[in-house]
Amino acid sequence: MADRHGPLPPLLHSLTVVTGLVDAVSYLALGHVFVANMTGNVIFLGLSAFGAPGISAVTSLTSIAAFLAAGVAGGRMVRAHKHRGRLLAHCAAAELVLVGACALVAAWSGGEAARLALIVLLALAMGLQNTVVRALAVPDLLTTVLTMTLTGLAADSTLAGGAGTNTRRRIAAVGAMLVGALIGAVLTLRASVIAALIAAALLLAATWAVAQRLSQVDRDASWAAMNAPR
């Protein structure tokens, strides 16, 4: 297998699309809040402390708290797995359940309680994803943030005297987040939040199905073991 990470990179690109999609939903439809980008929420907390209009400390704190809770659960999930592919499959399955629950809440409920419930469920999904992807440790594929990916893209480029390491993977990660945000914006603003959440659920279902299948049939253990070379 050419890539020591096997099928993980394209699967993580798929999760990056999901991140862009759900963060677009949360920002556009749930108030000025992110469910994946916790840096943004910390900044929002600072803005809200100064009384900036349209910024809610409650929603930012809710998202951060749920994200951290998912980090604890994700840490336990990571320690219970020795196969990277199965870990990713189980993570995608859990995210699918959480995003599916979001679609049901959005369809059947409204008001402030429903908005906070959506923030919690989506932040749980993204916190779990972030924790698992951190353990998988595929370079330049964090799926929820792009700052270091963009930094590496510039610092390792031939313009900076570098060798252009992982340039395609980095560009693909940026493109995946951009595409996800675009899909999320179009569906949220032109259709509905439910439509955007269903799109995210479909991507997660596809990621789960592929990861689960490859974990069962792929005989190359070089990418599968949790202690595989990173």
Describe the structure.
By secondary structure, this protein is mainly alpha-helical. It has a single domain, classed as Growth Hormone, Chain: A (Up-down Bundle), CATH 1.20.1250. It is built from eight helices and no strands. It has helices at about 10-30, 40-50, 55-80, 85-110, 110-135, 145-155, 165-190, 195-215. The longest helix is centred in the middle third of the chain and has 26 residues, at about 110-135. It starts with 7 loop residues before the first helix and ends in a 13-residue tail after the last helix. The model has no long low-confidence stretch (mean pLDDT about 95).
Number of strands: 0
Oligomer: single chain
Number of helices: 8
Name of the top-level CATH class: Mainly Alpha
Our count of domains comes out at: 1
Low-confidence stretches: none
The span between the termini is 15 Å
Strand content: under 5%
Structural class: mainly alpha
Largest sheet: none
Shape: globular
Arithmetic mean of pLDDT:
93
Helix content: over 70%
In the CATH hierarchy, the architecture is Up-down Bundle
Rg: 18 Å
Instruction: Name the helix and strand elements from N-terminus to C-terminus, one letter apiece.
Output: HHHHHHHH
Report the CATH topology name: Growth Hormone, Chain: A
